[in-house]
């Protein structure tokens, strides 16, 4: 059993993670050398490093989207574990060679945006390779010649694990490699590996694992690497109840990555089938951050039976991410769920929390939208 608290990298936390933070707090703890695989549009060096000396080669990269930082935190938890003397860590190092890019898009991370400084989504640049960050990753891929790829991301709080009231705390995808979404050998291997991770996670967060839509897009990096016959797994860190900083989710991503590496190291992938992958429910977009019932009590322009669905916009202010409530939908909203439900019983303005606008202020602004 792994005691996660022993390996959690406490120097980085919250949603805002930059290259400067990694260079100050994390890279000095590495027991291996780093290489620079390229530079960002703004000239920030993009480091990578290799741990282990086994025959199974795994390439992983995080923060391709600058505002998706949960997996970056989990990567450094994983590094602490792999560098430890835990028996599983030692077996992984003996059987696997890991090359890790902890932050592919440092410009986007600093600005807390999905895109890079040229406003390009790096995960839609696999064909054109128009950006220096895209070229850096592809060049590393070609030099390293991995046997597996881990593509590490965050997903929004709106996703449910199937048509249920369970949030998709962790989601996976074995990307398609053609428009027909055929189950090629590399795709099937990735499916089996996801099955191994799901088997573990169901013991900890039952019903909170989702499967991402597998529509084919050859501009996406994962689809491209799958086309090149390298089993590729997309990791999506999602919402855990009351965990907007995603400190609990990072633990589950860490444990999933360890289980994947252990499965590879022990040659246990064949213990799973593609059916274990399709047993995972496909994600649905059924969650609001807040669902307000009886808004008519506050504003008579609402109709009887209507509800207000609120989703948070993540806004960088200084070095902190604030969650600003915005009205997303108004209606009966049947079949939708929320991470928080507020039943308005009187005309008293109630706070979302100390950092958010009051419900009263929120509703007074609805007619201006």
Automatic annotation (TrEMBL):
It holds the Pfam family Peptidase_M14. CDD domains: M14-like. GO terms for cellular component: extracellular space. Its cofactor is Zn(2+). Keywords: Hydrolase, Metalloprotease, Protease, Zinc. Residues 6-264 form the Peptidase M14 domain. One of its GO terms (biological process) is proteolysis. It comes from the Bacteria. GO terms for molecular function: metallocarboxypeptidase activity; zinc ion binding. Belongs to the peptidase M14 family. This is DUF2817 domain-containing protein. It comes from Flagellimonas pelagia. The lineage of its organism: Bacteria, Pseudomonadati, Bacteroidota, Flavobacteriia, Flavobacteriales.
